[in-house]
Amino acid sequence: MDDVALMTYTSGTTGLPKGAMLSYENARFKTAASADCNGMSAGEVLLAVAPLYHIAGMVMGVNLPVYTGATCVLLYRFDPLGVAQALERHRITWWYSIAPMNGALMQVPGAREMDWSALRRNPVTSFGITFTEQLAQQWRQFAPNCVSHEAAYGLSETHTVDTAMPVDAIRWGTQGKPVPGNQIRIVDPDTGAPLPVGTVGEITIQGPGNFKGYWNKPEATAKTLKNGWVFTGDMGEIDEDGYLTFIGRFKEMIKVSGYSVFPEEVETILIKHPAVAQAAVIGVPDAEKGEVVRAFIVKKPGQEVEAAALVAWCRENMAPYKAPREVRFIAQLPATGAGKVLRRMLKDE
């Protein structure tokens, strides 16, 4: 079970992708944990739309139905109308989605007349936009019997699903609690020392899902895998009840006049503006402040807003140092096939 079963490549959001070597035991442990925590059983009819080469798409679309005996309806790509029709035609009961997919389905003409009443569970990953309680409430207008929530926190190096959201105790804004058998601790990113509850630091993980290393990259392996712990490079905090909140990638943190700004916290506020469909922010050099925030915005269809007006709105709705200095409108955000925004590609825009 310790032999390498597959090699999945990291998304490359902050650098070149690396091949993470995962064992049969890694896959077995995380598949079982995902099934148990997400209420998956042989009686479910599962819809698989997320790319199967992405670790989450693989677990949800291949491993889970094989492990549980559930029926899997597999679509070769995401098409809003096709997915909407599949939900109705096949009486889908369980669907793992990415937040923009839910938004796109609610915009399909005639969606309100379709019958998605069989759908009972919908774990959602916040790529591109944050899956909020408000969005979940909107989704229930279309799928009235469905419980939807943030899916999990995870990464390729741990065969994903490091946390899961308790369906009877959903806490919005968090990624849920560690799955049984997994340990998550928050450490000082400089010293590696464990930090107290409620303190922001680097997320580290120990458990049976941890990878064996990067293919042909011993130096990168040594930086990430230390004494059985995966040092993720992600910043987060754990509250007194054990819920993990992901804050952002350490490498993507923006330093404005010495203050730390994580792109995700700015983007989460930006998409609350009625004209904003998607948002991504990066740091750009500034002679006075070191860096300032630049925002890239995809507008909602039929909505208009001027850049200056959006900047002014931001200054009213977030701390001044977090507010974008500049807003640029863009037709589409660069993203991986799984929907994860590639902020590094915006540096050249």
UniProtKB/TrEMBL annotation:
Family matches, as CDD domains: AFD_class_I
Keyword line: Ligase
Keyword Secreted part of the UniProt annotation: no
Family annotation (InterPro entries): AMP-bd_C, AMP-bd_C_sf, AMP-binding_CS, AMP-dep_synth/lig_dom, ANL_N_sf
Any one GO molecular function term: CoA-ligase activity
Boundaries of every AMP-dependent synthetase/ligase domain copy: 2-215
Domain (AMP-binding enzyme C-terminal): residue spans on this chain: 265-340
Record has Ligase as a keyword: yes
Coiled coil: none
Domain of life: Bacteria
Similarity comment: Belongs to the ATP-dependent AMP-binding enzyme family.
Name by which UniProt lists this protein: AMP-dependent synthetase and ligase
